[in-house]
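Final report, closing paragraph on structural work. Over the funding period we assembled a curated collection of sequence-structure pairs, and we close with a single example.
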Amino acid sequence: MNNLTYVSLTEEYLKADPRELMAKHGKSFYFASMIFSKARLLKIATLYRLCRFIDDCADELPDLESQAAIKSILDDLNNEANDTKFNQLVAEVVSWGVERSYIKELVIGAQFDAQGGKISTSADLMLYCYRVAGVVGLMMCPLIGVKDKKGHPHAIDLGLGMQLTNICRDVLQDAHMNRIYLPEDEVTQSGLSITELQKAETPKELSLLVRKTLDQADQYYLSGYSGLAYIPFRPRVVILLAGEIYRHIGIKIRKNNCQVLSGRTYLSFTEKILVTFKTMGKLISLCFWKPQNHTSSLHTLINELPGTNS
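Its predicted structure, as stored:
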């Protein structure tokens, strides 16, 4: 993808079949989403295509091209009348009830990456996770039939849990891109550096920090699940399964003693099948059938952002 430009990337995503794109790049979620009806799957995959496009603009283009692409995208989002190819990508999902303001938050998160932003504190981490994943939960809500805005904070939390898991899984990959998403103050306090995060052997201090972050992720998964009953039954099963597949990536990391520098952790197809059977047992839990109150303290660091206090 070294020869990519913003123009060629846009053309590629306009032509791409969104379902094929999600099957290729979003394997865990696509595995769960096959339970969706064809019509709903197409909508979800179309949203995935938009989010993936924004992400690739930040990660796959050369630095200057990436920053220019994000600037162009933000200009389009602020000017709906701009007849651009990016606004063509946006128009379809907006017509289904997705708010442009949420897409803008996602782009600001991508801009942070493109400009080499740093996660200095836990507050920075939660803001970043909200922008790149929490808002995806909000954008999913109208596509999966969530009508009560009381479900929005739970949707954000499931996104936060997934993103924290991603960060733990991708420590080595991010380090090779000179990125650290674990809070810099905690990394420094542990005596770690970007050089040490590029090694094959995981320092004990990093293992402890990863375990702490995965424990935090579990709190957000539980909060996400406590709002499942706001979702109609069939997509409710999909969202629970998608969350459990991601959560079990964290479980597998723990079982490997949080050795995140020895390679990227993923679930095999067989492991996903096993998780599916385990997840079916959760269908009898109270929160699956009756929504629980949201724990407001989970949003202490992001409580001024859209959707956090619905």
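The radius of gyration is 19 Å. Residues 88 and 219 are 37 Å apart (CA to CA). We thank the funder for supporting this effort.
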